[in-house]
Specification:
It is built from 22 helices and 20 strands. By secondary structure, it is of the alpha+beta class.
Length: 544
């Protein structure tokens, strides 16, 4: 159903009492012993392998699971996690990982593991994505978008287990991005033992994802759709139990209500406030505000499979019609850097500053429309993102500003939106004409970023929301990923960006700042360059 823009105020305002009334632990208040995060939306699922949205990853992979490797949330450098050390063969086709020992999976009401994490869990986690006949590979709604868009579906030849604590990945071709792939949410490690338990006991397969078992710092306790998610600290976490005993995601899509709940103290932390709230938050002496340039890009995607958006003249006309400077000042309050490249501005050195600018030029826009046969104008739909993200803090406001600009060149624009999950599913299926979207990078790998969003293979994996395909573009990205020469790599990425600029499958808007606000008694909360939020190591002390 389409998004109705009125808050579910009663349920959300009563949420702390709802959580307490449903708690198993009557002796302690969840609010007193934990931390409440005002999140902007519900996760698509608790399956990290199939998600594509930061909202989902915040709720699943970043709290419930670990990966073989991690990228430092601030520097982006590779760090050990479930793998303690690794090595690469001389030909670049094999990677050997030595696994951490004595790592325990979650013990919950629905499953009690009998062994430690081992190499069979790594094999199970990847085989689920790579083998179509795997018991957990497919059931309703499952798509392994990242696994395909990163190229692993084609390039990962095999995985061999040398022993319980050693695993080897075999590739068909060298991939200098491979280690960074293993830091991404979709490579989270799940429990093979739990999978066997579900299969052998005829448990509904969907429960394998709805009731997840991981090794992460928190365990799922209870989820009420569109209301809240409650987690408890994993007592046997490999890096030591978190000091936050209870972590609650208070799902609050309405940004004004989310702001009010932070101010009132119902929430301890919130992310990505509206620009109109940002200055008020900064002036509040009881709050800490963290912000930094984000590794993200917001854009207006044209579905190139649908006329008239298959005509580059129309795509360019619509792009020249948009006054992006007004958008940057009004929607972002200037907390953004404009871009004409598909790469985040902070993705140096591959972001191309000297690419031909996409200037605001309504006269040229009208001329191009006339050349394409639309001298009398046309009618289009703009799908507005319904949640606040660093790359678009207010999708509806942005769409309204664009609507006015397009009216000036004779284009009538209808604004459409849905709830977040429906929005993503429909855009992934290509039902949109145009859509306001964006992407947050997992690391500084430009090849991975461009392949995920714009490669031909990413059309079927549903992360290429323009459904654009240019083999020359793909070939340049592949060459850039294979070369070790930084100058050649830079040149190849620049040529790829020039193709993008000439074709304009989407209009880049800019790279927004990542912003999060918290009460001052919340300690050690670090802002992530790659977006999203992490509660690892966070503490909450008594308010002074």
């Amino acid at each position: 159903m389409r998004m109705i823009y009125n808050p579910r105020s009663l349920l959300l305002l009563l949420l702390p009492w709802v959580i307490l009334a449903c708690s198993d632990d009557r002796t302690k208040s969840v609010i007193d012993t934990g931390l409440v995060y005002c999140s902007e939306g519900s996760p698509d699922s608790f399956n990290p392998h199939t998600g594509t949205s930061g909202t989902s990853f915040d709720a699943n992979s970043r709290v419930l699971f670990n990966r073989l490797l991690e990228a430092d949330p601030v520097t982006g450098k590779l760090q050990p996690s479930l793998a303690t050390k690794w090595s690469k063969s001389k030909d670049g086709l094999s990677y050997t990982f030595h696994l951490r020992k004595n790592v325990r999976f979650h013990t919950t009401q629905w499953f009690k593991p009998k062994r430690f994490f081992n190499s069979s869990d790594v094999l199970f986690s990847f085989n689920r994505q790579r083998q179509s006949d795997h018991y957990f590979h497919y059931f309703k709604g499952l798509n392994y978008n990242y696994y395909h868009s990163t190229g692993l579906a084609k390039n990962l030849r095999n995985i061999s287990l040398l022993d319980n604590n050693t695993v080897v990945f075999h590739l068909d071709e060298p991939d200098h991005s491979f280690l960074f792939h293993l830091t991404m949410d979709f490579t989270s490690i799940i429990s093979a033992e739990y999978g066997e338990y579900v299969q052998n006991n005829d448990i509904v397969r969907e429960n394998f994802d709805n009731k997840p078992i991981g090794t992460g710092p928190f365990m799922l306790k209870r989820y009420q759709l569109d209301a809240f998610i409650r987690y408890t600290a994993h007592p046997d976490y490999m890096d030591g139990e978190e000091s936050i005993e209870n972590l609650v995601f208070a799902i609050t899509p309405d940004p004004t209500l989310r702001y009010a709940r932070l101010i009132s103290g119902e929430c301890d932390v919130m992310a990505q406030p509206l620009s109109s709230h940002y200055q008020l938050l900064k002036k509040n002496p009881e709050l800490n505000i963290q912000q930094q340039a984000g590794l993200n890009i917001g854009y207006w995607a044209f579905n190139t499979l649908k006329p008239p958006f298959n005509d580059v003249r129309v795509r360019k006309a619509l792009s020249y019609a948009i006054n992006r400077e007004t958008i940057l000042q009004t929607v972002f309050s200037g907390l953004v850097e404009s871009s004409d490249s598909p790469l985040p501005v902070t993705m140096s050195p591959h972001h191309m500053d000297n690419i031909e600018k996409i200037n605001y030029d309504p006269i040229l826009a009208k001329k191009l429309l006339a050349e394409a046969g639309y001298s009398k104008g046309l009618e289009i739909d703009i799908w507005a993102i319904p949640v606040q993200r660093p790359y678009n803090p207010d999708g509806r406001l942005m769409a309204k500003l664009m609507q006015e600009d397009l009216r000036n060149i004779g284009v009538k624009a209808n604004i459409i939106s849905y709830d977040w999950g429906t929005f993503l599913n429909k855009v992934g299926e290509g039902e949109h004409q145009t859509a306001l979207l964006g992407w947050v990078a997992d690391n500084q790998d430009a090849g991975q970023f461009l392949s995920t969003l714009l490669s031909c293979s990413a059309r079927s994996s549903k992360t290429n929301r323009a459904f654009w395909c240019n083999p020359d573009f793909d070939d340049l990205i592949k060459q850039a990923q294979l070369t070790r020469n930084p100058k050649i790599k830079q040149l190849l990425f620049h040529k790829a960006q020039e193709i993008f600029r000439n074709e304009l499958p989407w209009l880049p808007i800019g790279s927004g700042q990542t912003i999060q606000a918290s009460h001052k008694n919340v300690k050690n909360l670090r802002i992530r360059t790659t977006g999203g939020i992490s509660f690892i190591g966070v503490k909450k002390v008594p308010a002074s």
